[in-house]
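[step 3/7] fold_predict: job queued, chain A
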Amino acid sequence: MSGRQVLLAQAALVGGLALALFMKQLPSMVRELRIYRMTGGLRANRRYP
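[step 4/7] structure written:
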């Protein structure tokens, strides 16, 4: 294998791991976003000093 092929294989492996981690955390991020929107989001500064 050449150096370029090794780098491409490593990039694919790291990208796959990052994608798997993102997909695992996606439900938690959606839940946090819903809570953030229910509490007012950016407009909540007036309500919660």
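[step 5/7] annotate
The longest helix spans residues 3-38.
The two ends are 60 Å apart (CA to CA).
exit 0
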